[in-house]
Write a structure and sequence with these properties.
alpha+beta, Rossmann fold, Arc Repressor Mutant, subunit A, phosphorelay response regulator activity, transcription regulation, transcription cis-regulatory region binding
Amino acid sequence: MLGDAVAAALALDGWQVDRANDAAAARGALVDHAYTAVLLDLGLPQGSGLDVLTALRARYDTTPVLIVTARDQLSDRIRGLDAGADDYLVKPFPFDELCARLRAVLRRSQGRVAPILRHGEIVLDPARRAVTRAGAPVRLSVHEYRTLLALMESRGRVVGRDHLEDRVYGGSGTIESNTIAVYVHQLRRKLGEQLIVTVHGYGYRLAGDA
């Protein structure tokens, strides 16, 4: 029930969520997909959450991991952190705290300190899911926002179309070949024609990024 509630709440907050109901399914999903972050319960059927975490780190996979568990003993927290977790949250927890801790581990994994993302006159605040241009608020659809977030989190790098599709849709459903191009077009219209550069045959990058 808690898993259902967390997945539903995260989806409402704009996250694409894949849920694995046991340790074996979790290990398989983490091999097959590149996730932005992992919420990991320790008490899983068919194995321990720590086993999943140990296997993840043994492959040198640096995906941020936030443990969520009812185990509140200091020894459990130490064991989880030493196994490679980035943070540890004890049930029950406020949903707002879960989201804040997710944002924090993502910032650390990306080498960022400030929670705000900036590119020229464009400012994106992940905590409020708000975007401004030269101080004026800009209304974006959910998919436009996710596309912009993926590009701003990858400043300095070209972002492939496949990666953008995965970030926007979470690898679910059938996606038209020009879908990301449509969102990029809308972002250019709302935020400036020169904001996003097309790298033909691969994907996109923010203007001015090498």
